[in-house]
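User: What would this chain look like folded?
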Amino acid sequence: ENSNEGSITVFQKDGAEWKEVDRRAPDRLCPSEFYGYSVHVDGDVVAASADCEINIELFRFEREDGNDFGGSLVPFQQLRFISPSFGAVSSIAMSWDTLVYSTVSGGLFFFRLQNRNDDGKAEYFLSQKMSFDGPSNL
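Assistant: Here's the prediction, encoded as structure tokens.
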């Protein structure tokens, strides 16, 4: 049993109190305290560091119909760029069309939001990576 397994928890303010409305734990068999170590929120989009299978997991916070309180995290994309030399995700920053994350061993990854699907669903795609060796266009 891994007592150091991370999670992502959403709280919402209700009057003077903060109440938990949703919690996510890794759904893969990859115990890691790094799941949820870094989190960035931009509107209703939540980007969180994941575990050894993926680097970043993206969620939309979908509110309950007709209710200002409550809702759930709905996963919509996983970003993966595995390189053992870069290590775990250490920080995440994002705006409406750009997501950047860094790793503990010097990796820096840039993703851009693009409409690529026939259904109009937007996804993030790796546009550039940097390391100790400098920039590398993909």
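DSSP finds no helices and eleven strands in the chain. If you want, I can go into more detail on any region.
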